[in-house]
């Protein structure tokens, strides 16, 4: 198995849907979905035509969830939902998310793995780094990974974009937090294993392109 295939990559994503209430005036209903970790996901999911004639949609409240997940060559872990209104600081990350993410890695790769995450403050905190040093067979520490590297994390350069595409096509659009969570679960579970493997195998090529560009933008180097 290649080095890239033995890496378990993790990240968090933020998804929000607009839940609507009816008022006079004709209009439509909208829903939005985005992830905070990559600007490529900062765009609308789509438009639903579910409002009856003679009424319009106005925002009643914003239904939003934050998720955490990991992928590797052998597949994907579970989609973990962050507690409502929770702030992902070092304590929350170490107590509530890291054990689940590492458990997923152990299930997918029981013979060993290298744990990789992005440079979010909670991830690079002394507590998180110390926990990973004690609880994982190997991990990429904060000084070995570029601080701003969405193009090097498979979740950022493939998975979140693939989920966004499915969100755009999903009908009916979610109207509640429960429906938003259910939609994300369905989309996550249906992500093709072969596509995730292809994204993982592109990891080495992206690392080489990053070195070639001396840490700058390198997407143009990947084009045929």
Structure in words:
By secondary structure, the chain is of the alpha+beta class. The chain has one domain: Ribonuclease H-like superfamily/Ribonuclease H (Nucleotidyltransferase, domain 5, 2-Layer Sandwich), CATH 3.30.420. The protein is built from seven helices and seven strands. The strands form two sheets. Strands 1, 4, 5, 6 and 7 form a five-stranded mixed β-sheet that branches. Strands 2-3 form a two-stranded antiparallel ribbon. The model is unreliable at 1-5 and 17-61 (pLDDT under 50).
How many strands in all?
A: 7
Average pLDDT: 77
For the termini, the CA-CA separation is 26 Å
Second CATH tier, the architecture = 2-Layer Sandwich
Derived from helix and strand composition plus strand pairing, the structural class reads: alpha+beta
Report the CATH superfamily: Ribonuclease H-like superfamily/Ribonuclease H
Calculate Rg over CA atoms: 19 Å
Profile the largest sheet: 5 strands, mixed
Q: What's the helical proportion of residues? A: 25-40%
Q: Could you give a short description of this structure?
A:
This protein is of the alpha+beta class. It has helices at 90-108, 121-124, 126-135, 154-169, 177-190, 193-201, 203-212, and strands spanning 7-24, 29-33, 43-48, 55-72, 75-76, 80-81, 114-116.
Please name the defining characteristics of this protein:
224 residues, alpha+beta, Nucleotidyltransferase, domain 5, five-stranded mixed sheet, two-stranded antiparallel ribbon, 7 helices, 7 strands, globular, disordered N terminus
How would you summarize the topology of this molecule?
Layout: E1 7-24, E2 29-33, E3 43-48, E4 55-72, E5 75-76, E6 80-81, H1 90-108, E7 114-116, H2 121-124, H3 126-135, H4 154-169, H5 177-190, H6 193-201, H7 203-212
Parallel strand pairs: 1-7
Antiparallel strand pairs: 1-4, 2-3, 4-5, 4-6
């Amino acid at each position: 198995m290649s080095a890239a295939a033995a890496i378990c990559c993790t990240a968090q994503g933020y998804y929000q849907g607009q839940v609507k209430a009816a008022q006079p005036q004709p209009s439509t209903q909208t829903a939005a979905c985005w992830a905070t970790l990559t600007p490529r996901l900062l765009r609308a999911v789509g438009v639903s035509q579910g409002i009856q004639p003679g009424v319009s949609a106005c925002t009643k409240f914003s239904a939003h969830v934050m998720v955490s997940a990991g992928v590797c060559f052998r597949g994907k872990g579970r989609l973990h939902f962050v507690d409502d209104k929770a702030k992902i600081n070092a304590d929350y990350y170490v107590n509530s998310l890291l054990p689940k993410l590492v458990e997923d890695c152990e299930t997918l790769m029981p013979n060993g793995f290298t744990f990789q995450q992005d440079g979010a403050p909670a991830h690079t905190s002394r507590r998180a780094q110390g926990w990973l040093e004690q609880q994982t067979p190997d991990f990429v520490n904060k000084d070995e990974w570029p601080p701003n590297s969405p193009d090097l994390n498979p979740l950022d350069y493939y998975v979140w974009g693939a989920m966004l595409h499915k969100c755009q096509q999903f009908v009916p659009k979610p109207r509640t937090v429960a429906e938003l969570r259910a939609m994300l679960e369905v989309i996550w579970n249906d992500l093709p294993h072969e596509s995730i493997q292809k994204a993982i195998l592109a990891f080495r090529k992206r690392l080489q392109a990053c070195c070639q560009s001396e840490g700058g933008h390198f997407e143009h180097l990947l084009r045929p």
